[in-house]
Automatic annotation (TrEMBL):
SUPFAM superfamilies in the record: TPR-like (SSF48452)
Organism field: Bremerella volcania
Ranges: TPR repeats: 108-141
Protein name per the record: Uncharacterized protein
Residue stretches spanning the membrane: 338-356
InterPro entries in UniProt: TPR-like_helical_dom_sf, TPR_rpt
Signal peptide: 1-21
Lineage, broadest ranks: Bacteria, Pseudomonadati, Planctomycetota, Planctomycetia, Pirellulales
Sorted UniProt keywords: Membrane, Signal, TPR repeat, Transmembrane, Transmembrane helix
Top-rank taxon, per record: Bacteria
Length: 373
């Protein structure tokens, strides 16, 4: 009996997570980043992208061509540049001009872009019509990103059906984006995790190629990360904190801050202020990197260079940047994340096996003593 009690104590020491809240610290956040590398980059803005100087140059460059020499892609380039500069009316006007000239060419691109510009302009219902047409033409384009763009817009419309246009869209799990997707798509339990990953990929795509610092996208990302299990909670909290920083009004900022706190409730060793400090430092470093891109593109434009060629040569040819954008994890990162777990499993297995043999020997000895007596 004493040995059995001893076994229980040993197992309790070996599996403390079963007896108390999980221990989470800054190292846990690093492991979350390895599992969702692109999520962290997009939350803080640490990824290669163009500055406003580039988009102004691109408009001037494409429009310098005679009208008869302009191709469908030229119109797409100009329209997207206007959208990136916040000039949605000009973006919409440019796409309509493209459709008039090339009504039967690159129809998918026209519908997808027009729908996106309308959504960015706040004309959500009109935008959905064109997103639906784009999905009908090519449902698998961009890894199905338009499908989740459509679903997110439908979710926004649902949450604002009562006239409340405030943020966050939801303050409880029962009303968040994941719950909406589960009900809307009728997820089955056996495929739910795979569906969540598809949705996560879709939202990350919208952030990378759209407005990565949109509070609505950050909120949707946080909701999806929270649904991935406890090993994504700190990233979810960072997404909500970033949404809080980007929100326009104080009430929304406070509500997002509260959501971040709720995401950390099960994590004993991580305080919200500590996480907020780490996030601020990461955003600062990302801004410094982007400042270099801005400086480069401004200098190239002033020198009359081809910004497409210069940017591709300097930034798209860097292996580390390309690997990061694809979410590739190196062998060293993988070992750093999982080697300790393998060692832990081996130690626990050996300890349990030793205890079992010990108990068997004890029982045999007890039976032998009983027979002799």
């Amino acid at each position: 009996m004493r040995r059995a009690a001893c076994l229980f104590v040993v197992l309790t020491l070996l599996f403390p997570a079963c007896c108390s809240a999980c221990l989470w610290d800054s190292d846990t956040l690093e492991q979350e980043r390895y599992r969702f590398p692109e999520a962290h980059q997009l939350i803080v803005g640490d990824f290669v992208r163009h500055s406003e100087a580039y988009y102004r140059w691109r408009i001037e460059d494409r429009l310098a061509k005679p009208i008869d020499a302009r191709m469908p892609m030229d119109y797409d380039d100009v329209a997207v540049a206007y959208d990136k500069l916040g000039q949605q009316d000009k973006a919409i006007e440019t796409i309509h001009e493209k459709i008039r000239r090339f009504s039967s060419q690159s129809v998918y691109e026209s519908e997808a872009n027009l729908g996106t510009f309308l959504i960015h302009a706040g004309r959500l219902e009109e935008g959905l019509v064109h997103i639906d047409k784009a999905i009908e033409i090519n449902p698998d384009a961009h890894f199905g990103r338009e499908i989740y763009q459509k679903l997110l817009v439908e979710y926004v419309l649902l949450r604002r059906a009562d006239g409340d246009e405030g943020l966050p869209l939801a303050t409880s799990d029962g009303e968040n984006f994941v719950t909406f997707l589960r009900d809307r798509l009728a997820w089955k339990p056996e495929s739910e995790m795979a569906e969540k990953k598809k949705a996560l990929t879709g939202v990350l795509g919208m952030m990378r190629f759209g407005h990565y610092d949109s509070p609505i996208l950050l909120e949707a990302l946080g909701d999806l990360l929270m649904s991935q299990g406890r090993d994504a909670n700190q990233l979810a909290a960072q997404a909500y904190l970033r949404a809080s920083a980007m929100a326009d009004d104080r009430d929304a900022a406070a509500a997002y801050f509260s959501k971040a706190g709720q995401a950390l409730e099960s994590q004993r060793n991580m305080k919200l202020k500590t996480l907020q400090k780490e996030l601020t430092e990461s955003v600062h470093k990302a801004n410094e990197k982007f400042a270099q891109i801005q400086s480069d593109e401004q200098a190239w434009a002033a020198a009359g260079e081809d910004l497409d060629q210069k940017f591709a040569s300097k930034y798209y040819e860097q292996p580390l940047l390309r690997s990061a954008s694809l979410g590739v994890v190196s062998l060293g990162q993988w070992l750093g994340q999982y080697a300790w777990a393998a060692v832990f499993v081996l130690v626990v297995t050996a300890a349990i096996w030793g205890m079992i043999r010990w108990l068997k020997a004890d029982l045999s000895a007890a039976q032998g003593n009983s027979s002799n007596s």
